[in-house]
Amino acid sequence: MQMTIVGAGAIGGMIGAHMAAAGHDITLCDSDHAHIDAIRANGLTIEGPVAHFTVHPKAIYAEELQGTHECIAVAVKSHHTEAAAALIAPHLSFDATLLTIQNGLTLETFTRFIDRTQIVTAFINIGADLMAPGLIKQGNIAAFYVGEPFADAVTDRVRRLVEALPYAQPTDNILGYLWGKEAYGAMLYAGAVSDLSIADSLSDPRYQDLMIAIAQEVLDQAPVKPEGFDGFDPQDLEGSLVRLSAFNAKSAKSHSGIYRDLMVRRRPTEVTDLLHDLKGPLTTHVGRLIQAIERGERTCEVANLDLMNAYYRAHRYAEPLHAVVRYLDAPLRAPEGPLHGYQIAVKDIIAIAGAPLGNGNPVDMAGPPSTVEAPIVSMLRSLGADIFATTSLLEYALGCPHPNLPDARNPVAPALTAGGSSGGSAVMVGVGAGTLALGTDTGGSVRIPAHYCGVVGFKPSYQHLPIGGITPLSPSLDHVGILATDVATAALCYRALTGAIATSVASAVPRLGFISNQLDTDLLDPTVAEAILGALAVLKSAGYEIVELDAEPFDQLDLTFETIVGYEALQIHGPQLELDREHFGEETARVLTLARSITEADYHNALRQRAMGVEAVTAGTKDIDLIIGPTAPIVAPGQNPSPDTPEGYLEGVMTRCYNLTGQPAISIPIPGSRLPVGLQLAGGFGQDLALLAWATTIEELLQKG
Prior knowledge:
This protein is of the alpha/beta class. The chain folds into three domains: 2-172, NAD(P)-binding Rossmann-like Domain (Rossmann fold, 3-Layer(aba) Sandwich); 179-214 and 226-244 and 253-300, no CATH class; 301-538 and 623-704, Amidase signature (AS) enzymes. It contains 26 helices and 23 strands. Strand 11, helix 5 and strand 12 (169-170) form a beta-alpha-beta unit. The protein is elongated. The termini are far apart.
C-alpha cells in the first residue's frame, strides 16, 4: 500500500516504520524539521521491548507536500487537526481515503475540509514516545481498531487498511472505541497532573473514586455505546482500574504522552480539545490544572491529584448539602511552603480576588469579581495552600439564611442543619473535600458548625489572624477561624499563618475548670449531656483535675453581647437597610431593624460592662489552664434558629463569651455520640499554642475512650 502519514511523531512514526518494514510505500511528513532531517540522514529507528529496527522511508517537511495522494493518514495532536486538514485537503484525489489516527473527537473539524465519505477513523492505544529526532520507543502492543465513522459496517477499504496496518483490527463501532478512549484518556489527563506513573495513578486507593468519577462523567456524555479495550470496560470501571494498572505496569511507557508534553518536551498538550469535547466539571478542573502547568504556574506533582480529589468530593458530597458557592480552578499559590498540598475552602464573606464576595446574599453573589483579596487568603497562598472553593453562609454572618438560598445541611444527618454562619466550611471538612476551611466567628460561628458536623473548629485569640478584606459584622468581636479534620491540622495551619513554633505541653496535665451551670443536665440535650459527662470521666481517669467555676462573671459578661453586636452590625449594614430593605432577606432585615432601638449610650455602657466582665472572668480563672464544657447545649436542629429567638440565644450561649473576652477557644468532636457533639476548650488570651497542644492530647484521650 502507498500511504503518506502526516504527523511522523510517536504514533504516526511507529506505524509508518512498521509498514515500511513490511514493504509498503510510506512517506512520512512532519513540520518538525529536525525529525525529518534525522530520518533522511539515518533512517527511523524503533526501539523498546517490542521491536528494534531501522527503516529508511521517504521523509518530507509539511510544506513540501505536493501532488495528489490515494491515501493519507493523519496522526497529529488534536490541537493541530485544523492545520493538518487544511494542509492535506488539496492533495487528496476525489476517491482517496483519509485515515485519522488521533486522540479526541476530531471528525467535525475534518468534515469542514474533506468530504465525509472519504474519511476512515482509527483508534489506537499503543504506547509510543518520540525520544529524539529519528528515534521512537514503542512501549507495548495494544488495541488498534479501524472503522467507518459514518457507517455501521466493516467495508472493503477498512479491510484493506487493516491488512496493511500493524496490529490493526476492523470494527463496525469505531466511535464507541473513541468514546471509550475519551473516558480512559480523561483518567490519563488526571494522572498526568501528578508525577505518578500511569499504573500508580490508577492503582493508588486515594484516587480510585476520583478516577472512576472522571471516567463515568465522560461515558455519560457518549452518544454511542462505548467500547472496552486492553482491560478497560465501561461497564466495570472499578475492575478496569485493576486491569489497566496491571496492563500499564508491564509497558515500557511508564508515563502518558500528556505528562511527557508537560514535563519533558515542554510543549502544549491537547487539553484545549479536551475542554472543547467534554463539558463535565471534573474534566474541566483537570483541564484548567493542565493549562496552569503549561503556563508555568504549577508543576506535575501529587498535590495536584489531591486538589482534584478535593474538587471531586466537593462535587459528589458537599454540593448536595448546599455547601459550595463557587469553585476556583487551578488557584494561584506558592510552589512550596508549610501548607503545600493542603486544599482550603473559604467562607464566602472573605474577599478572594477575581471572585464575587457573596456574603450569603443573592445580589452580592451575582456582583462583579472582587478586585482585592483578604490578607488571610494571600497569606495562605504564600504558604502553598490551594484556595479551591468558596462556601455558603448565613446572610452577612448575622445568623439568618436568605430565603432564596438553601442553608448548608449536615454531613452526618442531612435532614439537620450544618449550623451557622460558617456551615458550608464545616460541611467541606466533614465530607473530606479538603482537610481545612476558613470561617468567621463573631459569637460561635466556627465552633457551633464544628460541633454540629463533627469536625474541629478553632477560634484564635482576637486579632491574632487578620480580619481585613472580610465583610464585618461586629468588628470588636469578629474573628477568623479554622475548621479542620483534627486538632493537629488546625494547629499546623495556625502556626503557618502566625510563624509560631509548636508548643509541647505533653508532660503537663492542665487544670480544667467547668462553668457550673453549663453542666446542668436539665439545660443540655440528653445526647450532649451524655457525651460531655463521658468525656469528663475519660479526663478524670487520665488524672486531670477538674474544678467548678462560678458562673456569675460569665453570665454578667454575656449580657453585653447582643447590645454590642446589634449596635456594631447596624453601623455597618444600616445605610444599605435605609437605602434598600429588599436587598436583605426578611429575617436579616428584621434583626437589623430591631437593633435601631440600641442607643449610642447603650453601646458605650455595654463596652464598659464588657471590660469589667472580662476582668472578672480573668480573675476567676487565674488558676485554671483551660475552661472546658459543651460547645453548645443542643445537637444540630432541623433549621438554623434566628439569633433574636430563644432557640437562637440558647444555641450560642456557651460560645460567645470567648468572643467577648477575645481568648482562644476550640471545639473538638467527642467520639461515639448518636449525633456529633463538640467539647469546647478555652485558654488564656494569647495562649493559642498551649491550647492547641492540650487540645491535641485531649483529642487523643477521647478517641481512645
